[in-house]
Amino acid sequence: MRWPSNTCTSVLRFLVIVLISAVRSAESSIHDYHGDPFREVGNAYLLSGGSEGILASQSSPPSTRRGFHSAVHDGLSYIRFENITFWRGRSAADQHPEMAYSSGLVQVVIFEAADRDNIGGSPYGGQRSICCTPDLAKLEGCKQGEVIRIPSATDINWPVVLNVHFRGNLMSARMKNKEAYIRKTGMYNLFFISCDPKLKGLKVTGRTLWKNPDGYLPGRMSPLMKFYVFMSVAYAVLSAIWFFQYVRYWKDVLQLQHCIAVVIALGLLEMIFWYFDYAFFNGTGTRPAGITTLVVTIGAIRKTLLRLLILSVAMGFGVVRPTLGGLTTKVLLLGITYFLASELLNIAEYVGTINDIAGRARVFLVLPDALLDAFLILWIFTSLSKTLEQLQAKRSSVKLDIYRKFSNALAVTVIASVAWICYELYFKATDPFNEKWQGAWIITAFWDILAFALLSVICYLWAPSLSCQRYAYAGEKGDELDDEESEALCREGDISLVKQDRKEGSDSSDLEDD
Predict the structure, then answer these.
(1) d(CA 184, CA 114)
(2) CB neighbour list of residue 189: distance below 8 Å, 6 or more residues apart
(3) What DSSP string describes 188-248?
(4) How many separate helices (H) and strands (E) can be counted in the chain?
(5) Degrees (nearest 5) of the Cα angle 477, 491, 500?
(6) What sections of 395-482 are H helices per DSSP?
(7) How many other C-beta atoms are found inside a 10 Å radius of the C-beta of residue 436?
(8) Which residues make Cβ contacts (< 8 Å) with residue 57, sequence separation at least 6?
(9) Angle between helices 360-394 and 397-429 (to 10 degrees)
(10) How far apart are CA 269 and CA 15, in angstroms?
(11) Which DSSP string do the residues of 371-416 spell out, in sequence order?
(12) Which of the 8 DSSP states describes residue 31?
């Protein structure tokens, strides 16, 4: 039986793209296969078994091994195969005699992304073919009907190709449980491939475990566990400072400052739960759906409240006016909509698998979130402009100074966000094979750092103090205080965030008035 001429070759880069973008589990480093079917690509049937960044082993693997090594933090990195079984149809099995030693071959291929060109060959400089053809067998000495493998320049034992044979007319072929040890840091890819045209409709069951030296957490996610420790400490320090002032001046706390306290508490809880989520993942290889769902929900609430807080401040809530008036309903409606969009996106990204939201499906979840953010930014700056005009008209210099600082902070945040989005697009566009996976964690970490920085600025500008309740609403009541009196009212606390430098010569001018 010959392959049709239009399917005899395939481009290896397409193979690698399929590998990286296909089944990649976000819920664990344990990749389960539940009868997953092979797909036809060129002259091969293949199935992606996973793709993860793995750090090199920190200790030497044993030359022989009886059973599996059970220690998680043993310094070894490996891909472990457990109960991997390939299944073919009854019609394919019946084509072979009962006593046939080998009636079909499936090959397990493991290679580093840097060695992607070492899988496949190209007769006469044409398109690359995954499986060895008669022409390639003559030119390159490969074995016809098997995957073409060219030894790596750095290690002749890589890429790794493991053979699994069907016996007789059996419908299944089970792979021996074994481990492939990783001695070099890189982005590793696993493929199940068959070059036998009679094995069309092939399926696989079982699982593989991908382990790093310090645990099962994927290499691209491992730095985030330490990052969330750092962020937990940062939020704890901010919480301690804020709540000290909060309790100290409890009777004078504004409604705005209640909202700030809630956002800080949610931020602290989110960082702590992210750490526990990653720690559990690292120790077991599976991600706890309950904790992950809880933490992404807390995160969605925090992001929603932070955005509404910024919008409310821009409208003058708690400083220029005590309530939002008729805008309250619109603000709450926007908040509910943003929370739902953010929650759906986060659950799909962190609780589900990546391939569940790949391509166009993911756009439908990201797009509403992005559009709502753009609308919020527009509304915030429009409201802020009106508030600044109002303060200028009333000559409220102290409040005006605060809002100008707040405007500058927001402007810097927006500029940084746009610049980072451009960098993220550049990062992904220049790394189609995820070879820069060791630095990918920064993409996620940046947004948490930026949100924390902006929250810290808000805390600095509106920290609780002794008499800011009276000062905050003085302008709305028509009793705008002069600069020195407002400073005296709001500087009583140890950390006064609503203050203005005294004008030079003010004491002498007071004496002249007397």
Answers:
(1) 11
(2) 16, 19, 20, 48, 50, 51, 110, 111, 112, 113, 116
(3) EEEEEEE--GGGTT-EEEEEEEEEBTTBSS-TTTHHHHHHHHHHHHHHHHHHHHHHHHHHH
(4) 13, 10
(5) 75
(6) 397-429, 441-461, 468-477
(7) 14
(8) 75, 76, 77, 78, 181, 182, 183, 213
(9) 160
(10) 42
(11) HHHHHHHHHHHHHHHHHHHHHHHHT-HHHHHHHHHHHHHHHHHHHH
(12) E
CA distances from 37 to 21, 84, 86, 88, 92 (A): 16, 14, 10, 10, 15
pTM above 0.90, yes or no: no
Element (H or E) spanning 52, and its range? Answer: strand 44-54
pLDDT in tens, the chain (514 residues): 333 344 333 433 433 333 333 333 334 488 999 999 999 988 899 999 999 999 998 877 765 443 444 455 578 999 999 999 999 999 999 988 988 888 999 999 999 998 988 998 876 666 778 999 888 888 778 888 899 999 999 899 999 999 999 999 999 999 999 999 999 999 999 999 999 999 989 999 999 999 999 899 888 889 999 999 999 999 999 999 999 998 888 877 878 888 899 999 999 999 999 999 999 989 888 888 888 999 999 999 999 999 999 998 888 876 666 667 777 788 899 999 999 999 988 888 887 543 433 445 566 778 888 899 999 999 999 999 998 988 888 777 778 888 899 999 999 999 999 999 999 889 888 888 888 889 989 999 999 999 999 999 999 988 887 756 544 555 444 444 444 434 433 444 433 333 334 344 444 444 344 4
* Burial of 362 per CB tally in 10 Å (0-12, 13-18, 19+): middle
Reading phi first (left if > 0) and then psi (alpha if -120 to 50, else beta), residue 484 is in: alpha
At 191, the amino acid letter reads F
Phi/psi zone of residue 105: left (φ > 0), alpha (ψ -120 to 50 degrees), beta?
beta
In whole angstroms, give the CA distance from residue 246 to residue 139: 78
How far from chain centre, in Å, is Cα 449?
14
Measured CA to CA in angstroms, residue 25 lies from 22, 52, 193, 258, 512 at distances of 9, 10, 19, 40, 77
Helical spans, DSSP H, in 285-327: 289-314
Omega of the bond prior to 159 within 30 degrees of 0, cis? yes
With tokens 């402007």, the residue in question is 411
Please list, in sequence order, all residues whose beta carbon lies within 8 angstroms of the beta carbon of residue 37, skipping any fewer than 6 positions away: 47, 201, 202, 203
Whether the CB-CB separation of 475 and 400 falls below 8 Å is answered with no
* Residue 497 amino acid letter: L
CA distances from 64 to 59, 73, 178, 364 (A): 15, 20, 11, 50
Q: Which residue has the tokens 């060959």?
A: 121
Residue 490 CB: number of other CB atoms within 10 A?
A: 25
How many Å separate Cα 173 from the centre of its chain?
Answer: 37
